[in-house]
Amino acid sequence: MAWIVLFLAGLFEVGWAVGLKYTEGFTRLWPTLGTVTAMIVSLGLLGLALKSLPLGTAYAVWTGVGTVGTAVLGIALFGESTDAIRLAGIAMIVGGIVTLKLAT
Questions:
Q1: Residue 93: exposed, middle, or buried by beta-carbon count in 10 A (0-12, 13-18, 19+)?
Q2: Residue 79 region, left (φ>0) first, then alpha (ψ -120 to 50), else beta?
Q3: What is the value of pTM for the model shown?
Q4: Residue 91: pLDDT above 90?
Q5: In Å, what is the CA distance from 5 to each residue of 50, 62, 97?
Q6: Contact predicate 18/72, CB 8 Å
């Protein structure tokens, strides 16, 4: 169950990272409220997952899920680069997340 909670925490991290783009420097009310809410939920879920998962593993997976999700949405929503080297980097992060899951 802790792994599911951790994955959800990572998804909320994606939400607040992408939300930052829409806040326009925290000048737009609703995107700002959504972003701050996603930050709180993300950290709260990470804290719950840390009750039973090792700190280093949980933090690395949380940031990895957030990084990969944010990069993918950056490509999908904002037309960011899909250069092969960038996609290879994203794939390596996914590989690291899977490796940490298998090792725990």
A1: middle
A2: left
A3: 0.91
A4: yes
A5: 10, 10, 15
A6: no
